[in-house]
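so my prof wants the structure for this chain in the tokens format not the other one, which i didnt know existed until like an hour ago. anyway here's the sequence
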Amino acid sequence: MSKIIPIYIALLLFWKKDVYAQLEEMGHQATSYIEKIAKAAGMEAESIVLKGDPAEKIVNFAEEQNVDMIIVGSLGKGKFERLVIGSVSEKVVRHAKVPVLVVREPNK
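here's what i got, hopefully its the right format
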């Protein structure tokens, strides 16, 4: 049994690194896409991907960069999901020192 644990941990760490790398790449792709749309609309934009707790990173970034307003999307989670995993937009609204605009996708 003791020989299996290190292998399992090594596989778990490898898988974890691979998943993080994939998520980071998805983050870069998503923010680059938004940056292109903003620039096409004549807005100044810069793509940035931060690692860590999303709400905390958004609030801290806004404070450090002296932003005027935070705009976040909302997936419209149910009460149970918010209770169990929380809502990033809800946490940002509660902790930000600047106005926060929460945008939801229109009903399809």
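also thought this was worth mentioning. The first helix runs from residue 4 to 40.
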